[in-house]
Specification:
Elements lengths: L1 E6 L5 E5 L3 H9 L6 E7 L3 H10 L4 E3 L2 E2 L3 H13 L13 H12 L3 H7 L8 H4 L8 H15 L4 H4 L5 H7 L1
Antiparallel strand pairs: 1-2, 1-3, 2-5, 4-5
Helix pairs in contact: 2-7, 4-7
């Protein structure tokens, strides 16, 4: 289950996954003087969690914690009302070759560009990243699927706007 926690009385929001979100709530709640509230939960695992972390990265304080801004609250309200978002990728682990095919479709066949666009260090090898054992990792798959969603415009506008440069947003207003 993907869950969303919020510090009781205000503060950051956590997006995580656990088979027992209520158990995580009690553990995480010990970090805050008044505990945390479980705001929403819906079907999903690692890929969905990592994808959501990428969606809200501009609001992140740590990889799983986010500033409680309008975009994330809009997502939370939608998750409370409707459950799992239809735009969130299906939790299906892909083979390394399939992930690479999507990356090439998005960024072209330049391996250095693919690695740079996905945020990997120049010292990370292409072969290791897209090998059968590591390319199906949740993080790489989520990065490629997120890049595809940005490229094809399948994210809700309130999330896509978080990833546009400020000067483009000002020009649109």
């Amino acid at each position: 289950m993907i869950y969303i926690l919020h510090a009781t009385g205000g503060g950051p929001i956590k997006i995580g996954n656990s088979y027992l979100p209520e158990h995580r709530k009690s553990g995480v709640g010990q970090l805050f003087p008044y505990g945390v509230d479980l705001l929403a939960k819906f079907d999903g695992e690692w890929i969905g969690e990592k994808f959501l972390h990428l969606c809200f990265r501009p609001l992140s304080t740590t990889p799983e914690w986010f500033i409680a801004g309008p975009a994330i609250w809009r997502f939370i309200i939608d998750a409370i009302d409707n459950g799992r978002p239809s735009w969130l990728p299906i939790e299906e682990r892909m083979r390394g070759d399939d992930i690479l095919d999507i990356a090439v479709e998005i960024f072209g066949d330049d391996r250095k560009r693919i690695m740079r666009e996905l945020g990997f260090s120049p010292f990370t090898t292409f072969k290791d990243t897209f090998s059968a054992s590591s390319a199906s990792s949740h993080s790489i798959q989520a990065k490629v699927l997120f890049a595809k969603a940005i490229r094809d415009g399948s994210l809700p506008p309130y999330i896509a706007d978080l990833h546009r440069p400020a000067d483009l947003l000002e020009a649109a207003e």
